Amino acid sequence: MCPDKGDKNGSPGDDLSPDLPPDSGSAKGKARKLPQVLACMAAALGTLSSGAVNGWSAGTLTSLDADPDITMGTAETAWVVSIISVGSLAGSVVAGRVMDKLGRRITLVAMAPVLLLGWLTMALAPNIAGVLTGRAICGVATAFLFSTGSVYCSEIPEARMRGRLGSVPSLFITFGIVLSYLSGACFSWRVSCYVCCVPVVLMFVAMLFAPETPYWLLLMGRREDAEKVLRRLRGPEYNFDVEIEEMEKKMTSVGKKMEYRELWRPRTRRPFLISLFMMTLQQVGAANVLMMYTGTIFVSAGVENHSLATVYTGIVQIVFTVLCVLLVDRLGRAPSSCSRRA
């Protein structure tokens, strides 16, 4: 997946890129890349575990069905696959407001224990009700981690790196899907839960040392803190005045607090509807359904080693997601998005 970066609350997505000079820090040295990369990778570990939530059923439904403690029928199978969507829907309703209120970093740190709770609830479940409860909890946490992680990774990098680093959460989701496929192929469904919760533990530890995004700090009127974060991320020789000015211009143009009616104003209505159409097309195309039932589909098709076939499917996803990340800054957002859906 290669979602559009930025959010409706005024975060500096790709629309800032054309306005920023290619090297706004050239007057006092170039920005350091490593701190920006590490911060984005720390946040993306949460989306890696979220990807594992989405792909978990593909590699474990057969193992669940064989477990004598778990009663599985057609209805139970459907609920195991789909209940994370119910949880994600509930989480998505409030995720934007929470990350604006608490900050991107605090939201990620706070949601890590929630996702861990979901995985452990599944691993220790005595019956199918426990599995479904854990999956629902994971769904709620996934909504927060993916939306907040994507915003974090679009607000941390400088403009010339925003396209590639902003795509890191999508890449890590694919890694998470493959992790769930591998753990399902190599271990029982209970052990696979423990394996899949490792990335979110790593994210929790990493985010304790990661900074808040400078854009959110400016939104809160904390310019001095924003400057400290930029100095930490870009290096002491970097001239961040131009970057801060561009952020402040963005806030002035869209306002510090956006209402939903802003989406229907002439300047935002068309891009909003195009984005909505593309995301809707992606969902109704049933790609997620195929991903969650991959193992079951291969079993029904008579594939002898369905677990290995499932892993191969995940590897193909990684290859093309990496290709998308590499092309997003070269071809632009629209061409790479269209090629991805072709």
Record keyword descriptors for this entry.
342 residues, mainly alpha, Growth Hormone, Chain: A, 16 helices, elongated, disordered N terminus, disordered C terminus
Question: Would you spell out the secondary-structure blueprint of this structure?
Answer:
Blueprint: H1 34-66, H2 74-102, H3 104-123, H4 128-155, H5 159-166, H6 168-186, H7 189-196, H8 198-207, H9 214-219, H10 223-234, H11 241-254, H12 266-284, H13 287-292, H14 294-300, H15 306-331, H16 333-341
Short summary of the structure?
This is Major facilitator superfamily (MFS) profile domain-containing protein. The chain is built from 16 helices and no strands.
Structural features, described:
InterPro entries: MFS_dom, MFS_sugar_transport-like, MFS_trans_sf, MFS_Trehalose_Transporter, Sugar_transporter_CS. Residues 35-342 form the Major facilitator superfamily (MFS) profile domain. This is Major facilitator superfamily (MFS) profile domain-containing protein. GO terms for molecular function: transmembrane transporter activity. With 342 residues, the protein is mainly alpha-helical. Helix content is 74%, strand content 0%. The protein has helices at residues 34-66, 74-102, 104-123, 128-155, 159-166, 168-186, 189-196, 198-207, 214-219, 223-234, 241-254, 266-284, 287-292, 294-300, 306-331, 333-341. Helix 6 packs antiparallel against helix 7 and helix 14 crosses helix 15 (306-331). It is elongated and about 65 Å long. Mean pLDDT is 82; it is low at 1-28 and 336-342.
